[in-house]
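Predict structure. Chain length: 306.
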Amino acid sequence: MSTAVSEASHNPDLAARPVDPSFEELAKRVDDAIAALSALDPEARRVAEELKVAVETIHRAGLVTIVRAMRTSESARPLLFELVDDPVVHLLLSLHEIIRPDPVTTANKALDEVRPQLQGHGGDVTLIRIEDGTAYVRLQGACNGCSMSSVTLRNLVEKALVDGVQPITAVEVLPNEPEPTLIPTSSLFSSRHPVEEGWAEAGPVADVPEGALSAVQLRAAGSTQDVSVLVVNLDGQFTAYVNECAHEALPLDNAVLDATNGTLTCPWHGFCYDAASGECFTAPAAQLEQLPLRVDDGQLWIRVGT
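Prediction complete.
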């Protein structure tokens, strides 16, 4: 007999304790309540929605107080990081906008959802940047045309971004840059792929092993200014940031990457960030500036210019 069963047999209160519902059960309960809410008559729905807002406001105020207190406590901060990784806690904090996903990361995830459909028709999409609520993308292959199928694929991309990423309200398709008739001599010695405007090669993926970070100086094609970039490899997922702490813009070359908790800590004043999104756990509303990144033939490419 297991220890848990033995204890329950000798402790009626423990045996009678209900099992905590799963994440899926909790989500279904919320969905069912929302469906029931829409079926109420207008007056009853108004009262129910006002009650919902009032309860959520109280919950958010309490959660903000708890999170702020744990952020400022050296002993409680590690526990906060563990709690944020719990799917139910993460969902709760996200619903109350206490933690905010990075729009670039969220947009790329939304595009990954529709990418199989695009590739199934011989097309693909690249997110270039997000600016003032508009996502700028480039379409390749069958997506980049004037046929009805290409229009359908474009609409698929637009719907995925506008419906799936809260800050995005519009999508603009950038024209594909024409390849030059004459190939510059320099391109024969650099890469077999044409360098897109604003992008810079950051070296092989092997230079940034899993659970490590690297600071590199990059210069976009056509630019005369270097940009210091921090590349993070967390569980095999690469993320690039402008190499400046959001506190006082000091470099993060010697930052501490905790792969277990998924955190990045500034070596200067201890500001702590979510390594995957750049969200700051130490100061509300602070965030690292994330840069678009892609992997091409084992090479890291990062957009550091417009």
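Summary: The chain is about 40% helix and 20% strand.
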